[in-house]
């Protein structure tokens, strides 16, 4: 997989703490192979992996596909993804400052696009 | 453009929360073909999955059916009196009565299907213990099992976009298959809207983010009436940290710990609203007081007021989670649904957190009669999408009861209707035109993008359609909504992919959100009194003159019209 990198326009100076999120991007209808895209976004205490995906879609890259129907309280299980290789819910996976996080779809069987 | 595939069914149910699933079971039992369409996975979208909560039934029936220590003095009649008092007497009395009378049969049937009601407890507003506690997942999974067993067809991950009305009758819906981006049509003899409320039109909400008011907006556009639009219900929710935004649970728990609320001046402002109870005042007083501080410029940088338990010893705070863990059903201390709150404890005990009204429930909605008929041929509605049952304030536990009772009724009525009629005329041309309008969003080279609307919509939602309102601001808000409508008409989608085009979906949803926001604003502006969660700063008293319901409909010129009628008996 080749990697591309995008930095949030809102990310501040290098001194400000950030989080790196590497997200697997893949549309089987168009792309020859999956690509890991890296986003660097500002860190805030108590962010979840899901809230980071929301931040990216709203402020950095609206083309990112992740589920639309989400309860955000760990009940519906629709936000399950592979985080650093392990399947888990992303709404309650809290992010640590300076962390690099890899996000991939939880299941290849029902895969649609990106992390859906 | 490719032709739009058309699927046929007898009954189409839109939404797969509790109401949609219950309707599907009943319609299928009546022997007709049923499709349930939902934006997410079957039973996993909608609000019901999040409702690990109480289902209300009169206490005597709870005792008779389950052997719980219920009060024999209670009855559906006493239950009804509480529902009407809680709703400040704006409820449609007949609908409320149906809910109270049919609750026992519906919960008994749920138990026969394997639902596990764990205990009975009393909640505010109920004279007797009526809350049958159940896990949201157990409630939904019980219904999903019956839906599958009955042979209902599921159209998952498919978003209904528009109702198709031909010769005055609802003939089906135009929808989008999210996985492929293909527009599809479902032709049905009757349609049930079970799409939930419009809470997610507000940036701060306790509800799942799919509840954008789409069904209410679609019904309105097709000609149905919308009742009691001014009465969304608010609880206080968290504004930080990001993972917890909107949630009421940590707030509710901290309030039991005698949390203090401060404004930016460090004042415990609740002393002005209720000098005795202060932060223990009822929820409606708390939400109004907090919103008032925020609107008068005494809020924090995050747009809320400050909640703090800093005055308590840290070890007491930590123990507190143990003492109150039982009510969250055997989960470890400081757990809520899938969340472990413990990592947040150091922050919660040493710092304040900002809190603000979080939109929790849609009391109003599509007007229905006791058969759940909307007044439009072929269209039924149930659950939170329908209005009139709860008046201005829904009592705890009555959302799940509503879902079972009116889901059952909607399934019955829609099947009856479908058995009596053949498919009505279908208008291929109309469907193709609507589809072209949707596809046009993806072809534009210029125009605003979805992200451009976040801030202005947030401004509208917070400014005057929250729990605190005033005439002047509402007029200003309505002008903003009108301007936003013009911009939304030119919205452009930048995502090129057909598969799961989130941006396209959100662009379409902007219109529904604006519809429901305008409904709230118009109804709130007209109601020159304060009642329940509708607090007018310029009309702070409740007035008998306003014992009437507002009905919104689309006027012939396309504008939103509002009329008032006395409360239905």
Task: State the gist of this model.
The complex is a heterodimer of chains A (116) and B (569). Chain A is mainly beta.
Structural class of chain B: alpha/beta
Query: According to CATH, what is the class of chain A?
Result: Alpha Beta
- If you compute it from the alpha carbons, what radius of gyration of chain B comes out, rounded to the nearest whole angstrom? 23 Å
Give the CA-based shape of chain B: globular
- Please tell me the overall pLDDT of chain A: 87
- Give the quaternary arrangement of the chains: heterodimer
Gyration radius of chain A, rounded: 14 Å
Main interface by residue count: A-B, 39 and 48 residues
Q: Please describe the biggest sheet of chain A, giving its number of strands, its sense, and whether it closes into a barrel.
A: 6 strands, mixed
**Judging from the principal axes of the Cα atoms, what is the shape of chain A?**
globular
Number of helices of chain A: 1
What is the percent of helical residues of chain A? 10-25%
Describe this structure in words.
- The complex is a heterodimer of chains A (about 120) and B (about 575).
- Chain A has about 120 residues and is mainly beta.
- Chain A has one domain (about 5-105): Beta-grasp domain (Ubiquitin-like (UB roll), Roll).
- In chain A, about 10% of the residues lie in helices and about 30% in strands.
- Chain A has a six-stranded mixed sheet, covered by helices on one side.
- In chain A, a hairpin with a 2-residue loop joins strand 4 (about 80-85) and strand 5 (about 85-90).
- Chain A starts with a strand and ends in an 11-residue tail after the last strand.
- By secondary structure, chain B is an alpha/beta fold.
- Among the domains of chain B are: about 235-360, Flavocytochrome C3, Chain A, domain 1 (Alpha-Beta Complex); about 430-540, Up-down Bundle (Methane Monooxygenase Hydroxylase, Chain G, domain 1), CATH 1.20.58.
- The longest helix of chain B is centred in the C-terminal third of the chain and has 25 residues, at about 500-525.
- Chain B has helices at about 20-30, 60-65, 75-85, 95-110, 135-150, 215-220, 250-255, 270-275, 285-295, 315-325, 345-350, 400-420, 430-440, 455-465, 470-490, 500-525; strands at about 5-15, 35, 55, 120, 130-135, 155, 160-165, 170-175, 180-195, 225, 230-240, 260, 305-310, 335, 340, 355-360, 365, 380, 385, 470, 535, 550-555, 560-565.
- In chain B, the strands form six sheets. In chain B, strands 1, 2, 6, 7, 8, 9 and 18 form a seven-stranded mixed sheet that branches. A five-stranded mixed sheet of chain B has the order 19-17-10-22-23, with helices on one face.
- Chain B is built from 16 helices and 23 strands.
